[in-house]
Write a structure and sequence with these properties.
Elements: H1 6-42, H2 45-49, E1 52-53, E2 56-57, E3 62-63, E4 77-80, E5 85-87, E6 101-103, H3 106-111, H4 121-129, H5 137-143, H6 146-152, H7 155-161, H8 164-170, H9 173-179, H10 182-187, H11 196-199, E7 208-209, E8 224-227, E9 232-234, E10 248-250, H12 253-258
């Protein structure tokens, strides 16, 4: 251990840190001045590359400035030398692309061999053209045609050996239907046992009929309910029709009125 105290050591460390900061700042200033000087010397280069051909500007590719920035506001088309794609301001990848070269128009980019994104690029398109002639697919297809194999084992020959029509003739469905006809069974049970017309019994009033058990109608022809105590009749559209237990039945309202019955007042 040296003879320095802790306070002196701290002071020396602070001085060393201050000296290191000043030295770093000085080096950064020198680097900035060098880069600005190089940029100023290379700025006029794009203007020299501009040439007029038939009255149309055709500057060709211009190298990007530091950080991929455009050399001037006239250059709006970004180019990528690895993929050989160019990006216009409307391209989805325009803001993400760091330009390596710049063009003034799409025509200049295409003339330099660049293509829009997704087309494969000029380098990929050239690579695809070469192997197309080595192994044509049509020559291999002619050696083993599929039609020749199909003729050796046709499906139609097997179908003739076991036709479905021959089996259908041996057991026709019509023969079984004649043995037990449905019409013969229907004739054996005629509806003579309980005729509806004979079961209707005449009521106490002219044109009326007596109800069956529980006040039911004697037949479907009788639809008007009559109450002998109140001498009121109820039609099927009366609000009390379902609640009323008929004591006598009429076929029509006219028959009920002729027998002295009347409609409900609130009906």
């Amino acid at each position: 251990m040296s003879g320095y105290t802790i306070g002196e050591i701290i002071i020396w460390l602070l001085l060393a840190a201050l000296l290191g900061g000043l030295l770093g700042w000085f080096l950064r200033q020198l680097r900035c001045e060098r880069e600005h000087g190089a940029g100023a010397s290379s700025a006029p280069a794009p203007a020299k590359a501009v040439a007029l051909s038939g009255g149309i500007e055709s500057a060709g590719p211009v190298n990007a400035s530091k950080g991929g920035r455009a050399p001037t506001a006239e250059y709006t088309i970004k180019g990528n030398t690895d993929s050989m794609y160019f990006h216009t301001p409307g391209s989805p990848s325009y803001d993400q692309t760091i330009a390596e070269v710049w063009f003034k128009s799409e025509a200049e980019a295409r003339a330099a061999g660049y293509t829009p994104p997704g087309t494969g690029g000029a380098k990929k398109a050239a690579a695809k053209k070469a192997p197309a002639k080595k192994a044509p697919a049509k020559a291999a297809a002619k050696k083993a045609p599929a039609k020749a194999v199909a003729k050796k084992a046709p499906v139609k020959v097997a179908a003739k050996k076991a036709p479905v029509k021959v089996a259908a003739k041996k057991a026709p469905v019509k023969v079984a239907a004649k043995k037990a006809p449905v019409k013969a069974v229907a004739k054996k049970a005629p509806a003579k046992k309980a005729p509806a017309k004979k079961a209707v019994a005449a009521g106490k009033f002219p044109g009326s009929a007596r109800p069956l058990s529980g006040g039911r109608a004697p037949s479907a022809a009788y639809k008007i309910k009559g109450n002998e105590d109140s001498m009121i009749y109820h039609t099927p559209d009366s609000p009390f029709y379902g609640q009323t237990i008929a004591e006598t039945w009429f076929r029509t309202e006219a028959a009920a009125v002729a027998a002295g019955f009347r409609k409900p007042r609130n009906a």
